[in-house]
Amino acid sequence: MNFFYKALAAAAGRGEVVPGEEITINVDLILAHDGSAGKILAAWPDGGKVWEPGRVVITLDHALPAPAVASRQLHRELLEFARRQGIGLFYRGEGVLHQVVAERFTPRPGTIIAGADGHVATAGALGALAFSLAPEELVPVLLGGKLSLKVPGVVVVNLEGALGPAATPRDLGLALLGRLGNGPLMGKALLLQGEGIWRLSPAGRMSVCNLIGEMGGVTGLVVPPEETPAPAALSIDLATLEPLVACPPAPTNVHPVREVAGIPLTQVLVGGCGSGRLEDMEALAAGLAGRPVHPEVNLLVVPASRAVLDGMEERGLGRALREQGAIILPPGCGPCPGQHAGLLAPGDRALAATVRNTPGRMGAAAAEIYLASPLTAGRAAAAGAIGVN
Fold this sequence. Notes:
Layout: H1 3-12, E1 22-26, E2 29-33, H2 37-43, E3 56-59, H3 69-85, E4 89-90, H4 97-104, E5 112-115, E6 129-132, H5 135-144, E7 146-150, E8 154-160, H6 169-180, E9 189-193, H7 195-198, H8 202-209, E10 219-222, E11 234-237, E12 244-246, E13 254-256, E14 267-271, H9 272-275, H10 278-288, E15 298-302, H11 306-314, H12 317-324, E16 327-328, E17 349-353, E18 368-371, H13 374-383
Parallel strand pairs: 2-3, 2-5, 3-4, 5-6, 8-9, 8-11, 9-10, 14-15, 14-17, 15-16, 17-18
Antiparallel strand pairs: 1-7, 12-13
């Protein structure tokens, strides 16, 4: 068995598992946030008790500070629920859920995670098996600590070589999205192996795994280097990658940046769970290269966590970005989920280093959203257009 199946078998208390088999596994960590927890509360049974409060992570990250009365009411309900259940709620701007998990809980290879969010596979960068559930589906997991699922098939990708100076880990994620996101990974798990993936930093691996949900995968992870490589369906030499961009209307519509160079922009966004780590902020600054933000562009920066914001301030990045014209928002999701702080209007065209560009994702359905790396975003913010250095 490959690493993924061995981890599932261990969590199910079995010697082995096979694709298509129905199993029940023990869950190590359960995740939710204010974007999904309202539905969890609505489905919560009277008198229900959380199975093990210390294994539950809930963050306020989608709408903090509250942009509307309803958001604040939900926050108060979550605070009361957390107190009643003994859950440690992160509600003071600690950051976006997936970054908080990586920084404060440090999942190990084989950790089983269930979360009411579409991008929990970000933890696959650490070797965790993280499954995205609907909020209502998470309720029985919270109550019993177990998850029933059908063992998925796997798609193994072997990554060789090293990224050249023009490409970034985010470009690798977009390359995988373009190649696997139109069906090959649907309903399966993505296993990333080879020296190429381990040459990336932990932040870089998180950038790649963050996009697994957009590929249609049920989960995915970076295989520990000591594991025996599995037969691969696809091999990629990282040295061959170039800057990429996902064009409207879907994340899978991936093209080289050079093919869309010159398209003017009105907003650029870097941050959140997709690109809010310190390494991403340094890439954004490198793209700007000391230049001011273009007068027709609104550059929004969202640190993924308070720790990232602290690192930015220690390195002088925060001040430098502000002086160049960037607006730095509180740690969290920022405009990405389309709930507040930087929404798009009809006629806007944004380049975002985030997770999704479907119409209406960040505001008006008539606005256009392109997805790229923080480096590409920095260059575009200074030039006022995609792909112009």
